[in-house]
Design brief:
- There is one protein chain.
- This protein has 269 residues and is an alpha/beta fold.
- The protein has one domain: Spore Coat Polysaccharide Biosynthesis Protein SpsA, Chain A (Alpha-Beta Complex), CATH 3.90.550.10.
- Helices cover 34% and strands 17% of the residues.
- The chain has eight helices and ten strands.
- The strands form two sheets. The protein has an eight-stranded mixed beta sheet, sandwiched between helices. Strands 6-9 form a two-stranded parallel ribbon.
- The longest helix has 20 residues.
- The two termini are 20 Å apart.
- The protein binds guanosine-5'-diphosphate and magnesium ion (MG).
- The site of guanosine-5'-diphosphate (GDP) has 19 residues, from strand 1, strand 2 and helix 3.
């Protein structure tokens, strides 16, 4: 375990990974090319044998400051939650390992966060955004949920479930995350920030189905956990549920994940 507090990073970029050796280098290159705000990358993996780890170990040290975060549980949601627990920067971005096209948005998202927002979401469903290549059922549910929730005044942004989202330190230090499935952490943090009465913002973003590897998204298994947060969002406006109903983090909240500096990591023998 290493202390992850001694970093000058203004943005900690949390990336859940599952065998992403074919994608991760172009993602790290995209950060190096486009992000001017000091940042650090937290690679959040499940298995010691994950092929992403040797790939990032070989990445030039002068191009990225990288920490490895071992998932406290299993699956992408817990991996991200583990990364959020290890993050220390004032702004924390969740970014997917098959996305090497949104990096130009990171500095503007950081500017929006510093301007007083607690969540800045990439939005696929606004002018300039795009959502391409997902299976039809996932597309239909995602678009319907986002469209209806915006128009029912559930949330003030047009994309409720995008994982590509930046969060403030204040929000991460305040809210207890209870989601366990899919990528519901992102829906939960959005609707809780809104219920707290804190500002959320959006920026047009792109989402394209991966071309390397297979999606691990399980639409039918995860639809109910997503629906819970849909109801929660409606409860804020329509049932008058206020900030006092948002479960707060306590000092004792959650175990800390194992964090390894990339220099200290060795492949399992
Ligand atoms: N740690 C971890 N990361 C995962 C897991 N499944 C997916 N991911 C990561 O989550 C991100 C999005 O996964 P993907 O399968 O592309 O989902 P989709 O974009 O919704 O189709 C990628 O960075 C994956 O590597 C998992 O079981 N554990
Ligand atoms: Mg994907």
């Amino acid at each position: 375990m290493t202390d992850s507090a001694d970093s000058p990073a203004m943005i900690d970029i949390v990336i859940p990974v599952y065998n992403e050796s074919g994608n991760i280098i172009s993602v790290l290159d995209s950060f190096h090319e486009h992000v001017k705000t000091p940042y650090r990358v937290l690679i959040c993996y499940d298995m010691d044998e994950d092929d992403t780890l040797p790939a990032v170990k070989n990445y030039p040290r002068d191009k990225a400051d990288i920490l490895l975060v071992k998932n406290l549980g299993r699956g992408p949601n817990q991996a991200v939650i583990s990364g959020l627990a290890a993050a220390r920067a004032p702004a924390v971005l969740v970014h997917m390992a098959d996305d090497d096209y949104n990096a130009p948005l990171i500095d503007p998202m950081h500017d929006m966060l510093m301007d007083g927002r607690d969540v800045v979401t990439g939005s696929r469903f606004v002018r300039g955004g795009c959502y391409r290549g997902a299976p039809w059922l996932k597309q239909a549910l995602t678009r319907t949920a986002s469209f209806s929730l915006y128009h029912l005044r559930g949330v003030p942004v047009h994309d409720c479930t995008n994982g590509f989202r930046m969060f403030s330190r204040r929000l991460l230090d305040t809210v207890e995350i209870t989601s366990t499935e899919g990528f519901t952490f992102t829906f939960e943090l959005l609707v809780k920030a809104d219920r707290l009465g804190w500002r959320v913002g959006e920026i047009p973003a792109t989402w394209i189905e991966r071309t390397v590897g297979q999606s691990r998204f399980r639409v039918k298994e995860w639809v109910l956990p997503y629906f819970c947060w849909y109801k929660y969002a409606l409860g804020t406006r329509w049932l008058g549920k206020g900030p006092e109903t948002v479960v707060r983090k306590t000092a004792a909240s959650g175990p800390m994940p194992e964090v390894t500096r990339i220099d200290d990591w060795e492949p399992a023998t």
